[in-house]
Every structure is written in structure tokens, then in C-alpha cells.
């Protein structure tokens, strides 16, 4: 950090994946949600992103400490429950699109972000009250300025129409201010904004024309305060300004229409109020738009209709002139896929955010994070682009860090991922688009969160090619068995399962107390070991089992299918190969080489006599635990991913060379596989898929780098 006149000037290290990396596609995480808290969504990409067809429609939101900018490809929308990956558009710096972008410049959870009117900069705020302004159209997304602007979390941000001033509002804590308006490039204040009750604000809006006005909404006083300027000061005492139009609670959302003639407010009382944009006089109040709290509202591009979303699971479209509700969507029902209706709001269906994206297409996001593109009847007359969706579509994914990944049957083009919330998602392995979440049978109408393991972390996934079943191990002490998108069975474990491996039909579960073998739903007794197991791997033919212990040794067992009392027979022990306990294994596809990695070294052994091919101290460039290993389809390249955010590629024939991809995932890599034979046509041999604690699924085309370095 560098301090100049009280302003923090920061560098851009690790703010994004380096542009030199061969990233071709990113499957992005869903918005982070807290019950009863508004999810900010920005569908206004600014003039840079909205004025031509080179840029896909964008939606920006927060995922933990990250800012996600997702592209929504409207021209190639499928009739299923996904949105297609973009291939014909360009990214923010003019490079080919990777379907979106993840910004990683904040050190605290992001709470608000907004594009500038020009679309070249983004202003974002976090839970520690820091405002950060960074370049959208630069390939490294360099920061312009960072300010400690509030004492508590920033709740909302708004730019003026010139892109020169920014207003922020949030929790002032013990500070006398809970809202500020500053110059975008220097951080100099442009006036004094009045504080709300208990120094808590929830929303703000900058009038997009002159004379300039700023409206701020309170989080607890049901009050909208108006300011004029610059320099800005509160407008009071003229008998025209309407501040107390809502009955109770918070003003969750304040938004001006495009020409600044009308301001809309929505809050806890379920009503929507319309004010004159200049003198701030109440024009109309529409009561009971929702039966419960309204968490967000948004104007369409022409400023004729307002979209609202509430805790009742509905999104509604209000005519700003007449105040009538012209259309409503039961978003919970759209996610359930049930045309017969529902009697109550399922868990996860509470809607917390809504927006219009480029083309006047309305979207809504609920507590479960799933993004729903809403269909608009032609009779409403929003725009022709808004009518490209004839049925509401659901974009799913992960709201939590991805903790495990595996592939489906060879040639099936399916990837499965699981996260720390107990959610399992099935992906198209070629396009990277989500195909749906795995659900517990019988609970579809009660729960939309998709938590198969009841909110517990899923530590491992394994797919049995013989039975075509997916096995998942979670910290709820269950092994759950799924087929398609349904969880069909579960097995109770005596001890907590931490890892799992599958050959052809045999599944081996590693628990904190030992091993459990599962075959055709037949479960063995707990096999206790004289050491604590740290990683496990089985051969394709289910005959050899490799287990690492906390004593830094690797134990090789022969698996007997006839001896049910003692199915494991120790055949060899690799001693002295590692200085620390092995954390991951990978068998080559021909079964001749075993790769093992600890928190520093990657070693390779021959499975014929267990001699060392690559010993410790040779491939030792990871700085933290190496969580995953994988071989390329031709076994020429070994890839490793660790908690240090890095991916390395190694080659046995070129032992002294390596390929290094830094900052691949924020928080570490948890899954790594080459696509290879998973593709129907056997193509993409050097397409690498990685999953990480940032909730992303990344596709890397490493063919060119491999040819340059290893050929």
C-alpha cells in the first residue's frame, strides 16, 4: 500500500487471472446471499458494453470477496434450464470472451458494485467500508483509487451521469456519517449528506441529469432523504419534499429512471413509491405490491415499468404511469418446474435481487443464488429483445467454494462438482454450462437450496462407470448415491468420511478411523489401520489399493473379492519417499505410474517394482498442500494443483522443465482433470479443467504451452 494525501493507492497483484494464461472458459459462481439482505445486481454495463453487439449482456454481483461479471448470451439461449456459453463476443479488454470475469481485488466480502456510465470503470465497496475504483477495460484491471470511506459495510453505490462523482451509503457505526459523495478520482468530498437513524443506510441513487439530486434510504427509519448540489446538502422545510412515505422498516431500494424524471423506492412495507425526480414530491404510492418485504427494484431502459422482487418468491412488473401490476412471475415455481402451483414459499425461494440486463430482459435472484431469466409477454411491449425468452430459464451453479470434482462416464461429456454447502451440480463437459443440481427425492417442493448433504461439506465425489452412479461423501457422515439429478440412496458411516476413490465397481471410502469398501450397495465393516490415512487411490480393475499414512509412508494393498472378512492384504510399503504425509494420488491411465504429492513435493513411482521415477526435491515448487493430481490422456503430462492457488504441469521426459500458472483460483485448487476421453469424440486431449475454492470451474487449453515447453 502507498499513502498519498490520505488516499490508499494499491497495486493490482492477483486482482485477476493473468491475461497470459490460456484460460478459454470460466463457469462462474452464483451470487452470495444472506437471508433478509438485498443482493446487489448491476445490469447496466455502461456505454462501452451496451452500444454494440460485440459485448454480451452483463450482470455484476458479489461472491464473497470476489466480484463476478457474468455474460448472458441471449442469442443462443437453449430451451433447457441453462444459458449458453458465449463464443462470439469479446471480453472487457477486447480479447476473446471467456463467458465472464472474476475480480479479486478486495480483502473483505464485497457488498456493492456499480459500472460507471461510460462502462470503463467499476466502483465497488466491501464490508470494511472500503471503496475501490478499478478499470474494467484494461486487461489487468488496474485500480484507480481505494478509500476508507465508511466505518462499516457499504450497502449501495451510485455514479452521477457524468462519471465524476460517486455516492455511497452504508453503516456508519460510531462515525457521524453513513453516506458520502466524493470525486471519483481524488476522493474529495462534494458536500455533506444527512445521516439516517442509528447511522444505518441501505440504498442511494444519483439523478442521471441536471439539476443533480441524491436520494438516500434508511435501513431502520423508513425515510428517504433528498439532497441537492453540488455541493450537496439536504433539502428540508419547503413543504414539497416527501420523506416519510413508507410505513415501516427499511428502504431497500432507490432507483431513478433513465431520464431522471421519476424516482422509485421500495421497502419492508411491500409498497412502491414514485417521486418527482427534481423536486422530490410524491407522485404515487402503490400499496401491497408484495405481501412481504420488497428487497429490490429496477427500471426498464425506457423508464416505463419497474421490476420488483420480494420475500414471497414473486417478481412483479409495475406500470409507472398507472401504478398497476401488469405482470407477475412465480419464480419459485419456475425453479421447481411444477405447473400445478405451490402452497408456500420453499426454502431458498425468497427473492433478494432483480435487474434488467441489456435488451430489457428482466432477471431475479433468490436466496439460493440461482439466476432466473424471466419471460416477458409481448402484450406488455417492453422491447423486442425482451421477448426472446418464451419460458423462464434458470442458471444454476455453486454459491459456496467447490470442494470436490469428478467426471461422468467416458464419452458422456459430464462433470460433477460439489461444494461446502452440500450442493452437487452437473455440468456439460464441452460447453461448461450447468445442467442442473442433484436433488433429494421427495424434498423438491420444500427446499430449493439443493443441499443434498444437509448443508455439510462434501469432501469427495466418485463415479462408478459400471453402475452409472455418483457417490458423494460428506461431513454429515453419509455416503449418498445419486443417479441423474436425483439422490436415490444413502449409507451411514461409522466415522467421518474424508476421501473416496472408485475403480470400476468398487468404491473405497477413507474415514478418520479407517477404510470402508462399498460394492453394489454392499458395505463392508470398518477396516481399521495402524496409522491415520491421508489419501487413497485404487486401480481401474479394483485389484490394487494405495493408501498414504500420517507416517509419510505409502501402503499398497491387494484387494480380494472372495475374502469378505479380510479383503485387504498388504503387499508393499514405500518408505522414505516423502518428508511429509501424502495428500493426493493419481494413477496413470496405463497403470504403470503412480504420482503422489504432499505439501511440497510431487513424486512418481513405477507400479511394477515401486522404484522411484521422480524423487523428492525434484518437483518441489508448490508452497502449500497439493490437493490434486491428474495425468493427461497420453500420460505424457502430469498436472498438480495446490492450496497456493497455483497449477503446475510436469513432464517425465523433461524433468527440469515445468509450466506454471499462478493465481489460477483464489483460495486454492480442489479439483483437476484433463478432459481427454471424457469428450464424445476423444478430442480436447490437452484441455484441463480445474475447480477451486473461488466457486469457479475453469477450462485451460494448455496444448500450445505443452508443445513449447516439453516437445
What form results from the Cα inertia axes?
elongated
> What's the number of extended β-strand segments?
58
Largest sheet: 5 strands, mixed
Strand line-up in the sheet with most strands: 34-38-37-36-35
In DSSP terms, counting alpha (H) and pi (I) runs of 4 or more, how many helices? 3
Residue fraction in strands: 35-45%
- Average pLDDT rating: 91
Query: If you compute it from the alpha carbons, what radius of gyration comes out, rounded to the nearest whole angstrom?
Result: 27 Å
Distance between the termini: 42 Å
List segments where confidence is low: pLDDT < 50 over at least 5 consecutive residues. Answer: 1-12, 78-86
The helix fraction, in percent, is under 10%
Structure class: mainly beta
Can you give a write-up of this model?
The protein has 3 helices and 58 strands. It is mostly beta strands. The strands form 15 sheets. Strands 34-38-37-36-35 form a 5-stranded mixed beta sheet, with no helix packed on it.
Task: Map the helices and strands.
Layout: E1 2-4, E2 7-9, E3 23-27, H1 46-50, E4 58-63, E5 66-71, E6 100-103, E7 110-115, E8 121-126, E9 130-135, E10 143-148, E11 154-159, E12 165-170, E13 179-183, E14 201-206, E15 212-218, E16 224-229, E17 233-234, E18 251-256, E19 262-267, E20 272-276, E21 282-286, E22 294-299, E23 305-310, E24 314-319, E25 325-330, H2 331-336, E26 351-357, E27 361-366, E28 371-373, E29 393-395, E30 402-407, E31 414-419, E32 424-428, E33 434-437, E34 439-440, E35 458-464, E36 469-474, E37 478-483, E38 486-492, E39 497-502, E40 506-511, E41 514-519, E42 522-523, E43 527-528, E44 533-538, E45 544-549, E46 554-559, E47 568-574, E48 584-587, E49 593-597, E50 602-606, E51 612-619, E52 626-631, E53 637-642, E54 647-651, E55 658-661, E56 669-674, E57 687-692, E58 697-701, H3 703-710
Parallel strand pairs: 34-38
Antiparallel strand pairs: 1-2, 3-58, 4-5, 5-6, 7-8, 8-9, 9-10, 11-12, 12-13, 14-15, 15-16, 16-17, 18-19, 19-20, 20-21, 22-23, 23-24, 24-25, 26-27, 27-28, 28-29, 30-31, 31-32, 32-33, 35-36, 36-37, 37-38, 39-40, 40-41, 41-42, 41-43, 44-45, 45-46, 46-47, 48-49, 49-50, 50-51, 52-53, 53-54, 54-55, ...
Amino acid at each position: 500500500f502507498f499513502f498519498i494525501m490520505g488516499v490508499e493507492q494499491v497495486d493490482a497483484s492477483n486482482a485477476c487471472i493473468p491475461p497470459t494464461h490460456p484460460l478459454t472458459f470460466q463457469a462462474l459462481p452464483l451470487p452470495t446471499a444472506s437471508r433478509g439482505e438485498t443482493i446487489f445486481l448491476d445490469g447496466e454495463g455502461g456505454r462501452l458494453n451496451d452500444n454494440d453487439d460485440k459485448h454480451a449482456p452483463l450482470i455484476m454481483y458479489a461472491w464473497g470477496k470476489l466480484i463476478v461479471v457474468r455474460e448472458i448470451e441471449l442469442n443462443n439461449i437453449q430451451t433447457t434450464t441453462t444459458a449458453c456459453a458465449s463464443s462470439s463476443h469479446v471480453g472487457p479488454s477486447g480479447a476473446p470472451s471467456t463467458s465472464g470475469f472474476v475480480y479479486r481485488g478486495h480483502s473483505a466480502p464485497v457488498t456493492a458494485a456499480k459500472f460507471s456510465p461510460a462502462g470503463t470503470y467499476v466502483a465497488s465497496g466491501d464490508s470494511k467500508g472500503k471503496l475501490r475504483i478499478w478499470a474494467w477495460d484494461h486487461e489487468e484491471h488496474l485500480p484507480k483509487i481505494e478509500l476508507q470511506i465508511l466505518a462499516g459495510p457499504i450497502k449501495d453505490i451510485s455514479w452521477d451521469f457524468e462519471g465524476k462523482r460517486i455516492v455511497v451509503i452504508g453503516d456508519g457505526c460510531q462515525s457521524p456519517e453513513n453516506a458520502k459523495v466524493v470525486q471519483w478520482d481524488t476522493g474529495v468530498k462534494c458536500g455533506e449528506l444527512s445521516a439516517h437513524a442509528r447511522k444505518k443506510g441501505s440504498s442511494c441513487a444519483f439523478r442521471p441529469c441536471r439539476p443533480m439530486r441524491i436520494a438516500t434510504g434508511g435501513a431502520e427509519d423508513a425515510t428517504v432523504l433528498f439532497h441537492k448540489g453540488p455541493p450537496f446538502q439536504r433539502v428540508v422545510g419547503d413543504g414539497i419534499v416527501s420523506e416519510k412515505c413508507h410505513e415501516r422498516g427499511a428502504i431497500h431500494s432507490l432507483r431513478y429512471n433513465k431520464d431522471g424524471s421519476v424516482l422509485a423506492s421500495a421497502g419492508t412495507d411491500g409498497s412502491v413509491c414514485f417521486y418527482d425526480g427534481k423536486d422530490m414530491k410524491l407522485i404515487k404510492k402503490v400499496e401491497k405490491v408484495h405481501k412481504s418485504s420488497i428487497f429490490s427494484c429496477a427500471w426498464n431502459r425506457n423508464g416505463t415499468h419497474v421490476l420488483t422482487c420480494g420475500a414471497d418468491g414473486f417478481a412483479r412488473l409495475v406500470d409507472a404511469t398507472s401504478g398497476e401490476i401488469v405482470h407477475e412471475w412465480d419464480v419459485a415455481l419456475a425453479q421447481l418446474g411444477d405447473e400445478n402451483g405451490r402452497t408456500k414459499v420453499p426454502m431458498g425461494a425468497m427473492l433478494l435481487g432483480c435487474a434488467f440486463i441489456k435488451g430489457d430482459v428482466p432477471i431475479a435472484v433468490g436466496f439460493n443464488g440461482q439466476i432466473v431469466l424471466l419471460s416477458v409477454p409481448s402484450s406488455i411491449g417492453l422491447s423486442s429483445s425482451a421477448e426472446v425468452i418464451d419460458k423462464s430459464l434458470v442458471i444454476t451453479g455453486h454459491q459456496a467454494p467447490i470442494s470436490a470434482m469428478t467426471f461422468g462416464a467416458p464419452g458422456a461429456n459430464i462433470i460433477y462438482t460439489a461444494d461446502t454447502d452440500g450442493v452437487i451440480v452437473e455440468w456439460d463437459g464441452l460447453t461448461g454450462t450447468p445442467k442442473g443440481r442433484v436433488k433429494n427425492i421427495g424434498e423438491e417442493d420444500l427446499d430449493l437450496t439443493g443441499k443434498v448433504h444437509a448443508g455439510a461439506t462434501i469432501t469427495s465425489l466418485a463415479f462408478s462407470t459400471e453402475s452409472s452412479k455418483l457417490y458423494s461423501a460428506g461431513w454429515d457422515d453419509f455416503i449418498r448415491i445419486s443417479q441423474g439429478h436425483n439422490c436415490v440412496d444413502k449409507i451411514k458411516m461409522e466415522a467421518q468420511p474424508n476421501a473416496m476413490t472408485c475403480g470400476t465397481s468398487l468404491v473405497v471410502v477413507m474415514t478418520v478411523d479407517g477404510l470402508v469398501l462399498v460394492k453394489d450397495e454392499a458395505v463392508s465393516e470398518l477396516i481399521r489401520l495402524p496409522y491415520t490415512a491421508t489419501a487413497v487411490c485404487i486401480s481401474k480393475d479394483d485389484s490394487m489399493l494405495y493408501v498414504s499414512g500420517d507416517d509419510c509412508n505409502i501402503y499398497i494393498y491387494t484387494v480380494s473379492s472372495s475374502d469378505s472378512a479380510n479383503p485387504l492384504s498388504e503387499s508393499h510399503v514405500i518408505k522414505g519417499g516423502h518428508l511429509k504425509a501424502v495428500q493426493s494420488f493419481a494413477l496413470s491411465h496405463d497403470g504403470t505410474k503412480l504420482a503422489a504429492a504432499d505439501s511440497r513435493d510431487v513424486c512418481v513411482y513405477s507400479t511394477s517394482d515401486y522404484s522411484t521415477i521422480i524423487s523428492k526435491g525434484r518437483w518441489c515448487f508448490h508452497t502449500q498442500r497439493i490437493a490434486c493430481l491428474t495425468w493427461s490422456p497420453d500420460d505424457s503430462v502430469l498436472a498438480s494443483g495446490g492450496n497456493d492457488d497455483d497449477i503446475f504441469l510436469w513432464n517425465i521426459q523433461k524433468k527440469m522443465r515445468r509450466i506454471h500458472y499462478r493465481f489460477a483460483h483464489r483460495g486454492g485448487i480442489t479439483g483437476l482433470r484433463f478432459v481427454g476421453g471424457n469428450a464424445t469424440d476423444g478430442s480436447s486431449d490437452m484441455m484441463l479443467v480445474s475447480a477451486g475454492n473461488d466457486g469457479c470451474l475453469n477450462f485451460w487449453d494448455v496444448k500450445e504451452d505443452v508443445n513449447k515447453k516439453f516437445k
